[in-house]
Amino acid sequence: MMARYLVYTSPARGHLYPIVPTLEEMRRRGHEVVVRTLSSEVDLLRGLGFEAVAMAPAIERREIDDWRARTPIGALQASLRGFFDRAHHDGPDLLRAIEEEMPDALLVDINTWGAMAAAETTGLPWATWCPYFLPFPSRDTPPFGLGLPPARGPFGRLRDGLLRPALFAVYNRLAPELDAVRVELGAPPLREVSGAMVRAPLMLYMTAEPFEYPRSDWPESVHMVGPGIWDPPVEAPTWLEDLEKPLVLVTCSTEFQNDGKLAQTALEALAEEDVNVLVTTAGVDPSKFTPPPNARVVKFLPHSPVLERAVCVVCHGGMGITQKALASGVPVCVAPFGRDQLEVARHVEVAGAGTRLPAARLRPDRLRSAVREAMSKKAGAERIAGAFARVGGPRAAADALDGLMHGRGSVVQPSQDSRQSGDRRNAG
Question: What does CATH list as the number for 238-385?
Answer without folding.
Answer: 3.40.50.2000
